[in-house]
Design brief:
Elongation Factor Tu (Ef-tu), domain 3, 18% strand, 6-stranded antiparallel sheet, Arc Repressor Mutant, subunit A, 20 helices, 36% helix, DNA polymerase, domain 1, alpha+beta, 622 residues
Length: 622
Amino acid sequence: MVHTAKYDIIVIGGGHAGVEASLAPARMGFSVLLLTLNLDTIGQMSCNPSIGGLAKGHLVKEIDALGGEIGLLADKTAIQLRMLNSSKGPAVWSPRSQNDRGYYKEIVRQVLESTENLVVKQEEVADILVNENTARGVRTSIGNEYLTGAVIVTTGTFLNGLMHIGMEHFPGGRLAESNASSLSESLKNLGLNLGRLKTGTSPRIAKNTVNTSGMRVHHGDEKPFKFSFRTERVIKDQLPCYVTHTNQATHEIIRKNLDRSPLYSGKIIGTGPRYCPSVETKIVRFADRDSHMVFIEPEGRNSGEFYLNGLATSLPYDVQLDMLRAIEGLENVEITRPGYAVEYDFVYPIQLYPTLETKLIKKLFCAGQINGTSGYEEAAAQGIVAGINAGLRLRDEKPFVLKRYEAYIGVLIDDLITKNTLEPYRMFTSLAEHRLLLRIDNVADRLMPYGVKYGLVKEEEYGIFQKHRKDIDEALHKLQTTTVKPDIANPILIDKGEQEIPEERGGQTLFQILKRPGIHYQDIVPMTDIELNETIGWRVEIETKYEGYIKREEDLIERLKELEGVRIPASFDYQAIRGLSNEAKSKLSEVRPVNLDQASRIQGISPSDILLLLLHIKRDRT
């Protein structure tokens, strides 16, 4: 007899997207069922054992401000913490942690299994049940049926996954794990357009076969940051990473064996990530380079393995071993797990609304690598958005959509649904045109109110940050209204190489003094009785120095809101607009933008096209 049960929301897949997609609605009060292929690999860090990094660290901080879990997990399992880009402006500072892979997976499962309203089961979903164009439930490979109000698909690389090591290929979503082939066919049968992508990972090696004595050592920060506002204290005993390099001997081994590479022999047809290429691709694409950097990263605090960041490969095992042993410090290395490539199906994200609900099937959501992204952080960001929106959909409440000027998460999702993706999408600070406003220091100001609104952040937790914001505003006001005389300020200004304040001017406000490039908040403390601790002082300095730029960005955003306010009906007939090129009609009909702002970002859409659209929308309203 078929077993049946009913839940408010069903999540398919237990990766980083699935974790956030399950936790968010469960904490909102919905009953949630998480179905995964393997209970023992929930929250698995399939690739590098780290969280955050350039722009990705912003995503983690934003997820945390919304009440998500990945930042807290990263803090709990960190073995090293570093702030990247700290020598540059604060808009591009990006936190990154090295993590204990095994402990991370263990903590994830504990969190899921202890969360109220959330049930976790090991079953493969074979089919999505749809009635009246609406997702109604799922059927598993053993015949069980689970009915629901909404389905979120977060299958990662498992959707019809195919593993490659040299000329050998076999079904799988990760090494030694099965794939999900039936679900891929189910999605196709529903009418969704699927494509094929490829990703890969590096070999793992035995720690005791590595000679690190000649390698450059990378230590963590002396004053480590924390990802989560809920973390009370960060680790002190950090583990080092090491840096070595490939060389001409390594490159020659790879070149001689390209005919045995599935990438260059035609075995792999999926498109790989441009910004995280395999070592084979690096050697071919950058033939003039003598070497490439390799980061040797601990897999965990008590692990006997190292991960080789920068050496993703799908070459045969024997070639992997030969090329590694040609690298300084790895001459006697032993491989514990070979590198591999995996091809998998994905859903073209142009078929999604900003809520990540599919346009074709109501109450069916997709999040994570199934939408063509790469990385734990991008997946988790989509997971929490899909989870929140699935819950709001069941309540018939206004959807949760972050704008590009509100969050990197907004940039990520808008890029996916507007520009589509033909290769694995990776977040970069350069993709955020309003990145000066999207800093890691103001993430709570930007996003924590949403976390409180949806019940994911406690009121008392938010109260701490409201007081924090009040302290910043009070300090800024004091700086703006406190004038310091030349005889007090000038000795410090001279010592810092800054121009003196002329005696005849009578003085200068602390706010104007702090605007100077060479002056920091610590320098103005001796000039006044205003107390500025490290946390408040840092925020005050940033907001003071960038005041003009921030105001300019805010003015631009006000103009963008005018375009956002012009909604485009879902049934709008672009073919009927005379003067639009056939290309514009085709792209607008495919993307179906929700407003003029989104329409303006579609590749190939010109300002004159937007003007034509505006005129026709206004005419239709009259």
